[in-house]
Design a protein that fits this description.
Number of helices: 13
Helix content: over 70%
Number of domains: 2
Structural class: mainly alpha
Shape: globular
CATH topology of the largest domain: MetI-like fold
Number of strands: 0
CATH superfamily of the largest domain: MetI-like
Radius of gyration: 24 Å
Low-confidence stretches: none
Largest sheet: none
Order of helices and strands: HHHHHHHHHHHHH
Distance between the termini: 6 Å
Mean pLDDT: 78
């Protein structure tokens, strides 16, 4: 296992390097940039603009800028934000805990609901619950995240007044229960798509496991149905789900951009949207690189969990 982990981590280095290079190239090709941003200030003279470009290294050739940026990344330096005038790593790490809280809550909610709905639908195959769960799943997969978030705001915040409509805490608040109340709507919004998709995977793998010989043997020996379901069926049914969860980690980052924007949640998604609006390219490149790291880690964790769930799998 140790050799496998080392080999996978070493293999991730060229992948992350390619993401960093492509991010830099695409940002260079994008319209606007720091020149257009700084030129909006009518009081800034041409000499001041050139001084800013020189201080940020923007007057050097593009290949030299790329090499310098890659060298700084190895030292943990992602550059300086064009709009916040502070290190990009500092701007990102200030909001990373908020995004991890939202993503973690959404993933836990998705896993619990997907396991519950998937197993119940499999045990009542083609029944009323299975048909209703299928309809809800297809609806969740087809529904735009931002629209669903707006509908939740309209119903639970505006019409019923049960939950806050936006933000992470109330003015003068910030306690556990205050943050939890603000977390409910965005967490459910970001989780709805995963619940719909993951529950179908759980249903299919559970039906397949229920028809295996070892399940019939366990039942023939008089084993309790709950022990059969948890100890034999569910453990094998989780293996396809682990694969899907590892692949869906980047989708949570994509959903976070829309969800955090709709609910004004101060996380990476909101930071990415704001940086995209003003063309703050260093922050955009930093978030893209961090997203690539999360994808690599998500797939690595999924591979490790294979061996935990199925002892027959070895590396």
């Amino acid at each position: 296992m140790t050799r496998f982990l080392i080999r996978r981590l070493l293999g991730a280095i060229p992948l992350l390097l390619g993401v960093a290079v492509l991010s830099f190239v695409f940002m260079q090709l994008a319209p606007g940039g720091p020149d257009a941003l700084f030129a909006r200030n009518a009081r800034m003279s041409e000499e001041q603009l050139q001084a800013i470009r020189h201080n940020m290294g923007l007057d050097r050739p593009v290949p030299e800028q790329l090499v310098t940026w890659l060298g700084n990344i190895l030292q943990g330096d992602l550059g300086i934000s064009y709009t916040q005038y502070r290190p990009v790593s500092e701007a990102i790490w200030d909001v990373v805990p908020n995004t991890l809280l939202l993503m973690g809550t959404g993933m836990v909610l998705s896993l619990i609901a997907a396991l519950l709905f998937g197993v119940l639908a499999a045990r009542r195959q083609n029944g009323v619950f299975d048909l209703v769960a299928s309809f809800v799943s297809y609806f969740g997969l087809a529904m735009p995240v931002f629209w669903f978030g707006l509908m939740l705001q309209l119903l639970f915040a505006v019409r019923l007044g049960w939950l806050p409509s936006a933000g992470m805490s109330s003015a003068g608040g910030g306690g556990f229960w205050d943050v939890a109340r603000h977390l409910v709507l965005p967490a459910f919004t970001i989780a709805i798509g995963s619940i719909a998709g993951w529950s179908r995977y759980v249903r299919s793998s559970t039906i397949e496991s229920l028809n295996q010989d070892y399940v019939r043997t366990a039942r023939a020996k008089g084993m309790d149905e709950q022990r059969v379901l948890v100890g034999h069926v569910l453990r094998n049914a989780l293996i396809p789900l682990v694969t899907v969860v590892g692949i869906d980690v980047p989708l949570y980052l994509t959903g976070a951009v829309l969800t955090e924007t709709v609910f004004s949640w101060p996380g990476m998604g909101r930071l990415f949207f704001d940086a995209l609006t003003v063309r703050d390219y260093p922050i955009l490149m930093g978030i893209l690189l961090l997203g690539a790291v999360l994808i690599v880690l998500g797939n690595l964790i999924a591979d490790v969990l294979y061996g935990v769930l199925d002892p027959r799998i070895s590396y």
